[in-house]
Amino acid sequence: MIKGIWVEGPVKKGVLDFLNGLLAEKKIKAVLMPAKNKGGDSYAWFLMGKDRLLESADPVPPVMTTQGANVVSYLTKKGPVWEKTAVLLRPCEYRAVIELAKIKQVDLTNLVLISFDCPGAYPLEKYVNGDPEELDESFEVCLGGVVELDGPRNVCAICHRFTGTGADIEIGLMGGEGKGFWLVPGSKQGEELLDGAVGSESDNIDVREKAISDRTIARETKRNNTLDSFQETVMGPENLLNTLSACINCHNCSRVCPICFCRECYFDSKALSSEADNMLQRAQRKSGLRLPPDLLLFHLGRMSHMSVSCVSCGACEDACPANVPVSMLFALAGRNTQAVFDYEPGRRLDEAIPHTVFKFEELKDFETPYIKEYSKV
Amino acid sequence: METMIDSRMMMTDFLTALFDKLDVAGVAVMSKLPSGEKTAFTLFTGKDDIKECVPFFPAMPANAARAVSKFTRQAVPSKTVAVFLRPCELRAFTELIKIKQASFDNLLILSYDCSGVFPFQEINLSDETKLNAYRDAVSTGKNCEGIRPVCAACTRFTPQGEDIAISFVGRSTDQPLVFSFPSEKGLAAAEQLGLDVSNTVAASSAVESLAQERRSAEEELTAEVDASLSDTQGLVNVFDRCVSCHACSYVCPICYCKNCYFDSQTFEYFPESYFIRMQAKGALRFPVDRVLFHLGRLSHMGVSCVACGMCEDVCPVNIPVSQIFKTAGSKAQALFDYIPGENYDEPLPLLAYAEQELEEFED
Amino acid sequence: MANNETDIKIVAFLCNWCTFTAADLAGTSRLKYAPNIRIVKVMCSSRIEPVFILKVLLDGADGVFIGGCAPGDCHYSKGNFYARRKVALAKTLAKSAGLDSERIRLSWIPASEGPRFAHVVNEFTAHIKELGDNPARREVYI
Question: Quick one: closest CA in B to C53, which residue?
């Protein structure tokens, strides 16, 4: 497999030229990727490919409006696409796509997944309330991987999986210093598509690898430190409730979550509804019951449902109307639960979701050694 | 106009009397959360728990009609529970009763003339400056700066269908409460509370001056929305930023469906369909049916829209959803001469008809 | 692409008992009428939801036509009264949202009146031609 192709020149234009080239050669029939919206103050996803891509298409958008995995799921939930379609995804979106493929909410047939070294994203609120042009400009500067993004989302600042490892084609930005980018194949399909791409066979790709490993180490430390100190502020029901006190129980975090695919969420179901007298009893026991009830249960329950697959994409926090640090909470929960099962969401398609498999001998720490205790008595 | 009575009671006395004299099983009311900054609609069962209650706090973190619907939908309480509802929440509650998502059996409904609320993100219990300005605005019958645009343009700010009404606009919160009792249930409660009905109080002129200010604000808002939605381009622009999260529908008290039609399989298509549509237009925006969701939702709940403003509060991309829904909703309501929440006996417009009507729409 | 005559698309929701039968009659009577309508047969005009009408307009059809039995003649006795309310709602909402409510038409056409069906379709098609293309049709950002 070739290591990569170096394409010199402005990054975004170069990527669009590459994709337009694939379309023109009919190697792919369509592209699903973000583009600016009409007003230019936000982004949306577009399926394109009738002739050329929209001028406003942007392979590396500064915000995440709709999580890309959700969009891929919309496109392929009912069946595979018939024609080769390239999808441009952030690394976290790519990982969510793989998780959704495991639970059959995405059909990967005929999809070419393309990802990139992600500089992070601005909070959606900051972008739509701010000056998009100014933000676009300062985002552009960070594409080369030298400068860190100023004021990214909380989870982006501590993201340690910012490359699209595993995707069919990776767009290598790190180490390119904004002077160009590498096209790196990640699969056989990717390699075939890169055959004949305009650019030079890369002899400088170790620059990228070095830049990635440096940032990964820095980010891992930062992530662990940040999450550790965050954990201290939320430990215990009281602290957790305080962290969630602004929460209005609107469940929007779950609606935008790519992993929360259920059409009818358990926490909206009849299972959790009860008679008025029952609620009165609960209110009596606790000297007051917040209505509607079960706010904490919703968050903790959702964690139990999806935290092992949580890719820390931050969509939940972007959508939260009350500015609760949901994405940090779930990043924390995800880090801890994923460690238990040595599971990394989106790493590999053939890695089973932890709840669906078991080993005969495992997780000894979680069992009470019954016989030993018994023999003591 | 109901007679208004000076109760000689402060809010705490009244809440205590609800338990002591009316023997209610609980009171559902806005109260402070332990964090000390935010409030939430909370159910209390004892008079010792009520010290944290702030019934008039100008925030609506959730439409209480939704909460009371969840409280009564499965089975109503076996003993009387008093619930505080803002006028728009009460209207939403009445609409929910019509569609069998709530019941007022064994509820004692308390409401008050509402001075509007701030967007819930923008008001905390410790915001003294804002809260003082709000108190001044209440006592003089003016719109407080910073309240939500739909609140500032709300002309139905006096309750309808409540058992006990507390007069709020034009009064000071550190004076005894002034009540009126528009229903049988309310009159019975007045008797049990042992109020001296001869202590009548005149209506405050502040109510009328607020009503005037609100009417002109409503006209302005309508004109603004109409101008922004004058053609298809306007429609595209207004919803351009929408990310299809459907948060507006989730917090809407009227949108009660557990499985929203717009999240259903009806709007999931086979990939070929997306490709055909992409070919026709050159590019197909995802998520699809984004604008349809809003118009469709309007067609489902617009006639019942009480303009409570929750949808706009939760929109993550600041689309003026509730201003649009208030304006378009009012037009749909005018079409059928229907006022949502006015009377729980009145059928929903799409469930009724007259043989001779709407001639301008047929041929 | 402006006003290519055959390019105009009108989606017609016709009730099974009256207007669809009228359309059938127009066909068997070999009446000529504008070929721009695409018929969707429904059992009763009250099956039409405002969402159908709005969806059709937002997806770019140039007109929506709803045909049902005349008031009092509904096969299910009162379906068309409900239909009229729904169409009125759809038109009102379309108008307040900036869509052209003139593109929506409700007509009562009895089963025996094939010529009237042809006439109404021609008239509506001509009216839509006057209005021009539905701007939503080529709007990528909708």
Answer: B296
C136 contacts on A by Cβ (under 8 Å): none
Residue C97 lies in a domain: yes
Neighboring chain C residues of B326 at a CB cutoff of 8 Å: none
Domain spans, chain A: 5-224, 235-366
ipTM: 0.94
Q: Does A50 touch chain C (CB under 8 A)?
A: no
Parent domain of C44: 39-107+117-132
Q: CB C141 to CB A54 under 8 A?
A: no
The 10 Å Cβ neighbour count of residue C20 is: 23
SS3 of B92-142:
HHHHHHHCCCCCCCCEEEEEECCCCCECHHHCCCCCHHHHHHHHHHHHHCC
User: Has residue C31 been placed in a domain?
Assistant: no
**Nearest by CB to A292, which of B66, B241, B283?**
B66
**Residue C38: how many other CB atoms lie within 10 Å:** 12
| A325 and A158 Cβ atoms separated by less than 8 Å | no
Among the partner residues A80, A246, A269, nearest to B271 by beta-carbon distance? A80
Whether residue C72 lies inside any domain: the answer is yes
Enclosing H/E stretch for B355: none
A35 inside 8 A of chain C by CB: no
Q: Do C138 and B362 touch (CB under 8 A)?
A: no
Per-residue pLDDT tens for A95-145?
A: 999 999 999 999 999 999 999 999 999 999 999 999 999 999 999 999 988
* Min Cα–Cα distance to chain C from A262, Å: 24
Hey, are the CB atoms on A44 and C140 less than 8 Å from each other? no
CA-based torsion, A131, A134, A138, A141: positive or negative:
positive
Q: Which of A36, A38, A52, A53 to mutate to test the interface with C (most CBs of C within 10 A)?
A: A38
Burial A220-236 (b: 16+ CB within 10 A, else e): eeebeebbeebbeebee
**pLDDT, tens digit, 9 for 90 and up, residues B226-248:** 999 999 999 999 999 999 999 99
- The shortest C-alpha distance from B34 to chain A (Å) reads 7
Nearest CA in chain B to A46: B285
The answer to whether B166 and B179 have CB atoms below 8 angstroms apart is: yes
Q: Looking at CA atoms only, how far is residue B363 from chain C in angstroms?
A: 5
In three-state form (DSSP H/G/I as H, E/B as E, the rest C), the secondary structure along chain A is CCCCEEEECCHHHHHHHHHHHHHHCCCCCEEEEEEECCCCCCEEEEEECCCCCCCCECCCCCCCCCCHHHHHHHHHCCCCCCCCEEEEECHHHHHHHHHHHHCCCCCCCCEEEEEECCCCCCCHHHHHHCCHHHHHHHHHHHHHCCCCCCCCCHHHHCCCCCCCCCCCEEEECCCCCCCEEEEEECCHHHHHHHCCCCCEECCCCHHHHHHHHHHHHHHHHHHHHHHHHHHHHHCHHHHHHHHCCCCCCCCHHHHHCCCCCCCCCHHHCHHHCCCHHHHHHHHHHHCCEECCCCHHHHHHHHHHHHHHHCCCCCHHHHHCCCCCCHHHHHHHHHHHHHHHHCCCCCCCCCCCCHHHCCCCCCCHHHCCCHHHHHHHC
- Secondary structure (3-state) at B283: strand
Q: Based on the structure, what is the number of domains in chain C?
A: 1
For residue B160, give Cα distances in angstroms to B83, B163, B203: 14, 9, 17
Pair of tokens at residue A163: 């490359």
Measure CB to CB from residue C141 to each of B236, B277, B300 and give the nearest one. B236
Residues of A whose CB is below 8 A from C140: 46, 54
Residues of chain A short of pLDDT 50, as ranges, are none
Predicted local confidence at residue A376, as pLDDT: 60
Do B271 and A250 lie within an 8 Å CB cutoff? no
Contact A268, B258 (CB under 8 A): yes
